[in-house]
Amino acid sequence: MQMPEGSNDELVSRGASALMDVLIRAGLVVVLALLCYRVFSPFLTLIAWSLILAITLYPAQQSLARRMGGRQGLAATVLVLAGIVLIIVPTAVLLSSMGDSVRQLIANVQSNSLQLPAPRESVAQWPIVGKKVFAIWTQAHDDLPALVQSMQPKIGNLARTALGAVAGIGGAMLMFLAAIIIAGIVMAFGEAGSRAMHAIFVRVIGPARGVEFAKLSTATVRAVAQGVIGVAFIQAIIVGVCLLIAGIPWAGVLSVIVLVLGIAQVPAIIVSLPAIIWLWTRGDQSTTAGIAYTVLLLVAGMADNVLKPLMLGRGVDAPMPVILIGALGGMATAGILGMFVGATLLALGYQIFMGWVAASPKPAD
Fold this sequence. Notes:
This protein is an all-alpha fold and 365 residues long. The protein is built from 13 helices and no strands. The chain has a domain at 209-351.
């Protein structure tokens, strides 16, 4: 049975009209999404850090709230104030020390009052770079002003870069201060936020795996924050404070180096061992003080060996190497925030793949 020609034309017209409606609505949704992103993008990094801090600190906030009779807002406030005292204040002290060291170095160079010790003969025997380093070091010892004058453009650029780095770290700390305050507000309404996130995962993935993936994502973010960023940050502060106590110069700079090495999963002992060697070669303190400072720096330099296995991958239904590879790959791709995104994506991908493997049909006997 053939339909009349007019009916076919009417069906085509209706289909074209429906398709045009769908395209217009989809275009309006895309435009609305782009406009929302443009409005929200200046705050994207701040909100991302706030959510990461809120997810990481939420179990501690809940435990504190139970002891305070369920007062969520008060518990979040106490946790934010504790974070400011325990993290912001020591970091500000180390940043101040770092800035003072850079300014003092620039002042000494400008006034020609910087003195360098003579190099040892063994320096010239270093492979590849030994002779060149020995020559530059000798010139710096004999006539530092002339060396500074010959390298003036490079030294000026380096000084500006160093001061810019200090200013950048200071700005990052201000952003961290704002992020931890916003995280406190998020934690105060954490139960509603948790329900909303579960609903989003269920809507996107489905009721069968939505809640499971929501829990896995939360646990992965906490594992990376505690086991990578948290351990590196805590160790940098501990090493920096120990360096200040021991009177090691450039303590702020060395603590920043420890932080970067910790995030890159390089042992902090690389920094603490040279500091110990410098401390003993100076010989301007008693043996008891030298031993005490040595023990402090050794313990601080090896603290990650104890903290990392305890905190990285804890509570995550994925192997620790998967979390670590995802964090390092994400950092190489998109910086610090990429660590959390990479670890979460790799953990979710691992669970999806292992679920697919487990669901494969068993071979017939």
